[in-house]
Amino acid sequence: MGWKALHRWLGLTVGTLAVLLGMSGAILAMDPVQQAWNAPAAAAAGLPVSTLVERVAASIPWAEEIRRLPSGAIVVFSFAADQPQASYVDPANGQVLGPWQASALPRWVKNLHRSLLLGDAGRWGAAGVALAMGVLCASGLVLLQRRMGGWRRLGARVRGTLAQRIHVIAGRVVLAILCLTSLTALTMSASTLGWVALDNRAEPEAVSLANGKPDMPGAQLAALQGLAVQDLRQLNLPGTTDPEDTWKIVTAQGQGWIDRYSGRMLAWQDATLAQRIYDLALVLHTGEAAWPWAVVLGLAGASVLLFWLSGIVIWWQARRLAPRIAGNTPQAQADVLIFVASEGGSTWGFAQTLQDALISAGHRVHTSALENFQTTPATRQVFVLAATYGEGQAPAHASGALARIATLKAGHVPVTVLGFGDRQFPAFCAFALALERTLRTQGWPTLLPLECIHQQSAQQFARWGDALRDALGEPLVLAHAPRIPATAMLTLTARQDYPGADGPATAILRFTWPAQSAVARLRGHGLARFAAGDLVGVVPPGSAVPRYYSLASGWEDGFLEICVRQMNGGLCSTHLLGLQTGGTVTAFIRPNPGFALPRSRRPVLLIGAGTGVSPLAGFIRRNETRRPMHLYFGGRDPERDFYFAPEIQTWLGEGRLTSLQTAFSRVPEGGGYVQDALRRDAGRVRALVAQGAIVRVCGSRAMAQGVSETLDTVLAPLGLSVSALKDQDRYAEDVF
After folding, report:
1. What count of other Cβ atoms lies within 10 Å of the Cβ of residue 366?
2. Of 3, 54, 171, 719, which sits with the fewest C-beta atoms within 10 Å of its C-beta?
3. Are 589 and 677 in contact (CB under 8 A)?
4. Whole-model pTM over 0.85
5. What is the pLDDT of residues 496-536, one digit of tens each?
6. Residues with Cβ within 8 Å of residue 169, at least 6 apart in sequence
7. CATH (one of 1.10.10.10, 3.40.50.80, 3.30.1120.10, 3.60.20.10) for 597-735
8. For the chain, how big is the Rg over CA atoms in Å?
């Protein structure tokens, strides 16, 4: 069972009980806070216990026990007229401050938390839930670092539905604390259930022998003179009716018995290791003696409800998107096998499209998960559609598939690998690459070389389908219509047109979107919160295939803005450029976390050409902290395609943009291409990168390749390259 399956199974099975323990624990965490708030003055630092005893004896003659509470308050237990009393005492003068009472929190809350209101059987159940919570938290931490792309990216911006953001953000904050509380709960349960004995030693024989001398006053006992009140836990005074009774003192270090007549220490027992561990676990689990920590524990306990609710919503969303392959031929009878490795489920949609096309071409096709990789005598072709997860790992369900494939004897059937990933991450299609290397090393032939699909591009998939058609020599069309998430209607409110001369027309389009309820956002319906650099998928009329545009705005701006260039024969661009104010489009948001800017004060180097300036403009627009941002913009003619020019000039004046360098390739003295501007400014670029600058590049693939080659040359004196910057999460591209 993989980490993801284990996490889901535990969450669904023990989640409700975990919520009960978490919420009751949050209530109980109020107790140390209340005690600290209501407790009278705590013991003065360095005050000897002997002095405290002297002051207590003067004000409470019949004192039997002095106890220092975890809050630091001093409580004296005594009898008056045969009635037991417990009083707060001011250690500074021994004055009685008022009666002491145990916590007013309902006992049933403690019983619920400790035993689920089921007595001894419930204690076993609570221990089991604590163990499950520990495993749940550990698996959550593993999945968290995988989702964010590694431990170094844990602080990166979280994207996705509201439920996913709640789950991940809460996990970043409190999962480690919940792991600790689970461990400490198990430690305490080990003692309560008798698994571990805190101290099974017999008390030593410590008896005061009457020698005709009077009791030595407590103020004169050397053992009490050398002990500070803040180290005291409990002190029992010798009874007046039993001449053999002794003083008994308890501290964190152990317990001792003192002769009442001579003041000599009759016996001492050091606290056992088990007792010390238990005492530490008690403080860490309850917050006793550390009320600020109790506040943290209370918040962590209450967060369990958030985890559970958001986890249920995420599970339900994943269940709705679970793959359902139609038209599957039994594997033993199929001449084409398709194996899939998918983390989020989208790769299964491509597998269905491939299967449908092959069936239309007359093949018998079986599609299954990659962990079921195996050929049969009927197999003639094998295709592996493999997505990459996190830092280059296999999707959870296929975590052991690569190792298994490496042990199989190679067959004569061609195995063709198609990778799916996101170029923003350094480990782009790393799992597909690992599969490709393993298969070729093992000796499996292939029909086509490895191809990697960026961001689930239906167009790139169709081009791969053309190559497959030619290789098979069969009529084959891969017209993939991706499963579109819940959409919303966007209304055009403004447009800024840039008519083309010898090139296509372009426009900056600004939309509003309908308001959403919290429930809709939680379930991922409509438009979630978005940021500059994310993508908006626009579904044009007459097509089920969305086209993606980089966003020049974030949800905080109050509008959604894109820059659209007319593509020859482009269905979506034609529709968008034909919109008038008040017109609508159907759209949804696709997060693009790898391109987002990390929260930092490090300078930012923004490089864009043509409509690629769109997300970069969005970054500058939201630069309210005046973080150093330097823009290199490339176009053809400043009179025709200097997009966002008025805004850029305004941002320069406001300090949102630190500097601007331009290059225009179709005008005299325009400066050529954007990479030429970088080359002319090589010294300044090197200085910015040496200061830790973050680099973002957006534009055509050819432009991005030219920029990458130029930067490799410019940065060589620093011993750096684009590849090295990617490894440091400092360089990302958004190419089209």
Report:
1. 23
2. 719
3. no
4. no
5. 999 876 656 899 999 997 766 555 554 544 456 789 999 99
6. 158
7. 3.40.50.80
8. 35
